[in-house]
Predict the structure of Glycoprotease 1.
Amino acid sequence: DDDLVVLGIETSCDDTAAAIVRGNGEILSQVVSSQADLLARYGGVAPKMAEEAHSQVIDQVVQDALDKASLTERELSAVAVTIGPGLSLCLRVGVQKARRVAGSFNLPIISVHHMEAHALVARLIEKELQFPFLALLISGGHNLLVLAHHLGHYTQLGTTIDDAIGEAFDKTAKWLGLDMRKSGGPAVEQLAQEGDAESVRFSIPMKQHKDCNFSYAGLKTQVKLAIASRNIDAKVPLSCASSLDRSSRADIAASFQRVAVLHLEERCERAVEWALKIEPSIKHLVVSGGVASNQYIRSRLDQVVQKYSLQLVCPPPNLCTDNGVMIAWTGIENFRAGRYDSPPPTNDPDDFM
Ligand code: KG4
Ligand code: ZN
């Protein structure tokens, strides 16, 4: 089993990623090519542009992953690739690459669900983590609470009815004039450390809905109004602003983060209670997806799970944001369960789609 060596390819959104992982969980290589520069310049992901960016770098990213692992394609056991959810134009770049490699070297191909991979990568870093477990998956596009019964079998306890928390972090960063060269979340988290989290009274979303769903569109609007009423001009970047301006921006960042996370805490508490009724043996809450890199979120959710004597499992930040390791690892789990396809024909018609 440890002899398995799987290449994982991820192109569902704005990062082109590849990694090679061994059956025992050893990460042999990990490469991510980010479109962050493009995003900062154009203020968001445009599918056609993202597709071109993936196409330009995909061969190199996979080659780098092989080189860093000192392997050739011949030494691989299988190729795993994200098939969704995501931008279809972008997904196709990864799928076609995976099929070319698998076809040329006669390798099985494993289709991976992006959100399942965000959850299962926690099993690579925490060997004690057994099914069933509860998972909170938080990223730019998703906000999910799922009960993982076993591989490929999940119950969705809650999702967002509008925006995901990462989207709210990104817009808050933009409106506050923070440095968007990386994603907005880390910039907000950093500035929030200087602010007073009680200074701006944002209301917690969906208090009256006693379920596990999320909503971040209203909080986004509250932030926008708070910024407008303080006459903060996002076109004047934070670095140039007067100290007074900086402190009121920090107050907004801190107050936003506190309420955004209170919403997560409340939903997680309810989800733990629901989950324990369905699967009384759960021992872990997995928190993964890009937003799970946030240290404040980790510490607050750690307190929530302690009340129920559960353990929080949070992958390191480079495995929380989109990456190839989680795809390779989920590929390994599926491969072991016999869930893979035979090698595609070398003259793959998909290549000419
Ligand atoms: O999982 P991911 O890399 O891509 C998606 O599938 O969306 O998540 C990206 C999201 C972005 O919205 C980014 O701002 C957010 O994760 N993020 C953070 C932090 N690091 C990344 N949000 C809050 N605090 C952070 N430290
Ligand atoms: Zn993701």
